[in-house]
Write a structure and sequence with these properties.
With about 240 residues, the chain is mainly α. The chain has one domain (about 1-235). The protein has helices at about 1-5, 15-40, 45-75, 85-120, 135-140, 150-160, 160-180, 180-195, 205-235. The two termini are about 40 Å apart. About 30% of the residues are buried.
């Protein structure tokens, strides 16, 4: 959708994004078949089906937000907002909007996946923490060793992206709980210089970290749903 609005061609899924999308779509087929087999009297599979559909849509929206942020970043050339024309300030504001949207969506998707994993594997994470995150669910696998193989794979992905995800999480927390992340950057710079112009944050570095965040989410979704599909084929999900 955003590509069309920005005058670009529609996206063609490639790489890990395509793998994640295809794996989730395949699992949707499995849920649908199961609903027809036993008529899903408790709506368990319908719920998982709807949640997975939501994850597919959310991943699509995450990638679009990252793309839009990168698109508008190209239009920002000044080193500080004071040197920008009014038109460039508008482009910078659009970049900030979609960049924020992207890093917030990263963690929202992971938390939604945590809900799916908690439900499918009956991890009972809510007994540990009522409002739990994906990372809480990941720790919960330690108490349910049956799916330890999946936990190890997900932990490896988490560790591979520890640095960029830590930075994105800090910005997400500042945006949601404290103050805008770009305001925090401005305050730090003002404290350092106390005079002169406030330089922009490193937009290219932030976008690189955001791309790594998108990749982390894609790899995590692909790994989780590939495992779900695999055990489904072997024995079905025991509920």
């Amino acid at each position: 959708m955003l590509r069309t609005l920005l005058g670009e061609k529609p996206r063609v899924n490639q790489g890990i994004l395509k793998e994640a999308m295809d794996t989730m779509a395949h699992t949707l087929d499995s849920f649908e078949r199961q609903m027809h087999v036993d008529h899903d009297p408790n709506h368990d599979y319908r719920k998982l089906y709807i949640w997975t559909q939501g994850l597919i849509s959310s991943l699509d929206e995450l990638e679009q937000s990252y793309f839009a942020a990168a698109h508008f970043r190209k239009k920002v050339v000044a080193g500080s907002t004071e040197d920008m024309t009014s038109a460039e300030k508008a482009e910078y504001a659009r970049y900030v909007y979609f960049y924020k949207d992207a890093f917030i969506r990263c963690f929202a998707i992971l938390d939604k996946l945590g809900t799916v994993l908690n439900e499918i594997f009956q991890l009972n994470t809510s007994k540990t923490k009522v409002h739990f995150s994906y990372y809480t669910v990941l720790r919960q696998f330690d108490y349910h060793r049956e799916h330890h193989a999946l936990a190890l794979q997900l932990i490896k992905i988490k560790e591979n992206y520890r640095e960029p995800m830590s930075k994105l999480r800090k910005r997400r927390n500042m945006e949601i709980h404290y103050m805008n992340s770009e305001m925090q950057d401005d305050l730090w710079q003002l404290h350092q210089t106390m005079k002169g112009k406030v330089k922009l944050e490193d937009l290219d570095q932030h976008l690189l970290e955001m791309q790594q965040g998108v990749d982390m989410v894609c790899e995590t979704l692909h790994t989780a749903y590939r495992y779900i599909t695999r055990i489904w084929r072997k024995q079905g999900i025991r509920r």
